[in-house]
Amino acid sequence: MKNSSPLTPLPPTLNPARGFTLIEMLVAVTLFVFVIMIAVGTLLNLTKANDRAQAVLVALNNLDFAIEHMSRNLRTGAGYGNPVGQSSIAFTDSYGRAVTYSLTANMQNNRGRVVRTKDGVGPIALTADEIDIRELAFYIDGTDTNDNKQPRVLITISGRTAVSSIKENEQSEFHLQTTVSQRTPDI
Length: 187
What we know:
Elements: H1 22-76, E1 84-86, E2 88-92, E3 98-105, E4 112-118, E5 121-125, E6 131-141, E7 152-161, E8 173-181
Antiparallel strand pairs: 1-6, 2-3, 3-4, 4-5, 6-7, 7-8
């Protein structure tokens, strides 16, 4: 029988003192922290992009409502006059009421808003506080009775989102236009 002495080393697979060195641990922790920092940065950027997308969605939904409201009343209205590029329009709606759409500044936050006045009542805001309307213009064509054109109104509107949770330089700008033809023919 072979006599094993206490100085005989054990095979490497049976060495109980084997472990990670300090350098290996530092490298592993550094890589872990680096990956976590990238993941957190990406998550924060995704959250910020989602906030911007939600702000744009709110703005577009609100603008869609305002433009559709103006279009519906202009389509059935009459007596547009002939303002070219002005920021307000006055006309008579299908019920014979005097209606005015215009751009005005909100006194509380100095943001532009589209407002409606009907028979002297108002103004009633059509756009929300999350939108800052910078420009509203109406271009009218075909209002003369002898011009053989159907009256139509081109509405242009531009501005930016104004959501308080988003930084000023990250607000989204928008530029929209639509053309409305008067429903009652005058040709």
